[in-house]
Design brief:
Keywords: Signal. This protein is mainly beta. The strands form 3 sheets. A 6-stranded mixed beta sheet has the order 1-10-11-12-13-14, with no helix packed on it. A 6-stranded mixed beta sheet has the order 8-7-4-3-2-9, with no helix packed on it. The protein has a two-stranded antiparallel sheet with strand order 5-6. The longest helix is centred in the first third of the chain and has 18 residues.
């Protein structure tokens, strides 16, 4: 009888321990996602002509610059861009701009170095550890653009995003991000 009780206890203990695991066997499933679990987007990049107006050498004015090309949003209301250097990618919607880059000395977020930064139209800035995934970016030249209520001034020292309604935004580059 003791052997039968011991076997039942061992089976119950094994089942309980298996239920307390912090891992789950199997593969992640994401309907509509491509290999690696990332959402898939069309890979063709929209063509963008260089605007006829160029920005000044400094990116300091907080007032949106007139002129420049307007970048149309996707069906979901986002514009996806990549800097001319290829070092920074961003997604822009009417409420916020989020950028991903290999920042120099980024803050730590949840134990990981941040590789993303987001600014809202009201000027709130937050650092993120994440990945934008396979987004269909438009590569910018060093010029001024407009997208979903934001003015984008791309320069060799960083890219400035200014919300046209509030005047808030950020200057972002591999060196970091400054909110205004």
């Amino acid at each position: 009888m003791r052997a039968a009780v011991a076997v039942v206890w061992l089976v119950a203990a094994g089942a309980a321990a298996a239920g307390c695991s912090s891992t789950t066997d199997g593969a992640a499933r994401c309907p509509g996602c491509g290999p690696g679990g990332e959402p898939s987007f069309p890979t063709s990049k929209p063509t963008v002509s260089t605007p006829t107006t160029t920005n000044s050498p400094t990116l300091s004015p907080a007032i949106p610059t007139p002129g420049g090309q307007t970048l149309p949003p996707s069906d979901t209301g986002y514009v996806y861009i990549e800097t001319k250097s290829g070092q920074t990618r961003c997604q822009i919607n009417a409420r916020a701009v989020g950028c991903e880059s290999n920042f120099t000395n980024p803050p730590v977020v949840n134990g990981e170095p941040a590789n993303g930064v987001e600014v809202t139209a009201s000027g709130s800035l937050r650092w993120i550890a994440g990945n934008l995934g396979d987004i269909p970016t438009t590569t910018l030249d060093y010029a001024t653009y407009h997208a979903v209520g934001w003015t984008i001034e791309a320069g060799s020292d960083g890219t400035r995003f200014t919300n046209d309604g509030t005047g808030h935004g950020m200057l972002v580059g591999t060196q970091g991000a400054e909110v205004f």
